[in-house]
Each structure stands twice: as structure tokens, then as C-alpha cells.
Fold Teichoic acid translocation permease protein TagG.
Amino acid sequence: MRISDALRGFCFFFLDLWQNRSVIVQLTKRDFQNKYLGSYLGLPWAFVKPLAVIVVMWFAFTYGLKVGRVDENVPFAMWLMVGIIPWFYVSENVTGSIHSLQEYAFLIKNISFRASIIPLIKILTNSVIHLFFILVIVVICLAYGYTFSIYWIQVFYYMACSIVLTLGMSWFFSALQLFVRDIGHLLEVAVQLFFWGTPIIWSYRMLPEKYVIFLKLNPVFYLVEGYRNTFIYKVWFFEDWRTSVYFWCVMTGVLIAGALVFKKLKPHFADVL
């Protein structure tokens, strides 16, 4: 596929997003209701799991391992919350969308509907919850004595980066999973490995400088540290422009690779569904 063809494909995709915006909103509302409002507890389930993980880790590191403060004397609870929330967003976008094509098989069989929109619906559903957790971060920062800062607006830049990165990954894994059912299990293992390998509950400043470059190869590192730079360290994303350019290159590559795999396998979706 030529670059011009790829750019043309993305243009048509975004044009379809605009033309079908009302349908996408309705499908996102329906997905949100099916996911959270169909159970007895309802919407609180969206917050119970991540909050439980955060509380357990905070308790273990604060009282078990006696970690009071981390980088630049930052309270560990706030440092952990700011770093782990973007991780939850990224991981939930990818793992939550892997079965999206099976869930919305009735739409795929509709020739007039663009199947590539389906993984985006899952991401938009998670985005609603993520916006709430961004508000939680703001409240926690204020509670620890931090004041409103102009730097906080760039959280939406990092959120947009997360959406684009995970959209490419969602296209890739959701399409491949229809033909290789073990992909879902492999992805769960990979998510756990990336969680512990990414400086989420530990600081990369603990490592010698020569090893930090290897951590920066992980695109999720850019997002996690980006949230901390936004709310804690007050650093603009363009100040470390080399890391930003590298992330954009990786993000673009992942998006294109996901789009190519999705397009290649799309003609066979109806057969396996």
C-alpha cells in the first residue's frame, strides 16, 4: 500500500466518523449502559476495580514497604494515582476492545456500516470513565496542596495520544483475534508484563541513567510520565521534544499497522462470525 493510499483511507475514516457521529454517540451510550448499567450495582462497577487496585497498592507500599514519599518529596499516594490512571485507560482500551467485533457482529454484517468504527466505540466508552478519573486526580492534587496550573490542560493532549495509540492496537488485536483465538490470552499476559515493566508503581529514577533509554522505548512510559509531568512536575510535552517525536513515530506506526491488518482481514470477518 502506498502512503497516499493510506492517507486517503484515513481521510475516508474520519469523514465516516463525522457523517456517522450521531450513530456513534448512540452506540457509545448503548455500550456504556450494557457494560455498567445492566448489573445490580450498576455504574459504581466502573470505579470499584481501579480504586480497589489503587487502595491495595497504596496500603502495601505505604505501610508494608514503608514508602512515604518519592521523587522530589512527592506524596506516594498522589504519585501512584496520577501514574496508574493512564495505565488503566490504555490497558482497558486494548483488552476491552479485543472482542468488540464479535460483540457487534450484527453491525459487521451490515454492509453500509464501517467495521473499523466498532473498536472506537469501546474506547469512547472507556473515555467517559477516564474523564471522571481525571477529575479525581485534580481533587487529589488540590487536597495535597497543589494549585490549579496551566500545565493541567495538556492532560487532554496525552488523552488524545492514548486514544490514537490504542485505536491502532485495537484494530490489530480485534481483527487478529477472530482468526487466532489465543490472542486474547496472550494479550492478558503481555498487559501484566508491561504493567510491571513500566514505571507505574516504581520510579524510573531508581535506575542508572544508561538504562532509562530502554524504558523510553515503551510508548506507555511516555503517557504515564506525561500525566505526572502534567499534574506534578509541571513540564510541557514539547520540552523533551525528542521523546515526543519518537512517541509520535511509534504511535503513527502502530496506527498504520493496525489499519493495514484490519483492512486485510476485514473481507473475511463475516465468514468467521
About this structure: The two ends are 27 Å apart (CA to CA). The chain is about 75% helix and 0% strand. The chain has a mean pLDDT of 83.
